[in-house]
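We store chain and fold; example below:
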Amino acid sequence: MKIDHVGYAVKRMDRALRSFGELGFNFEPVIEDTDRNIRIAFGKKDGYQVELICPLDKEKESPVDVYLGGVGSTPYHICYQSEDLDAEVERLKQGFRVVLEPRPAVALVGKGLCF
């Protein structure tokens, strides 16, 4: 496995895009994942990639609410790429907890993801 990106929970996408842009990150268009109630933006700089995630509808629950409510905007996950997601998940279950079983991800064009 290799690191793909670091995910940041952010309260406001516009402010986060501006702040990371000032650091030199270039962002792809924002993606709306209505299934998980989040907006996502991927940015790259010098071979390093970040994913900004914020709630789409603040009146509904989203996976980043717990981070934003307690700490505020913060890095909260590291995403790894894998050639065989199912095998890696089984291997990692020996020492890590699965919070979300593997499923297709809108932001990854249907590729699988697991938390």
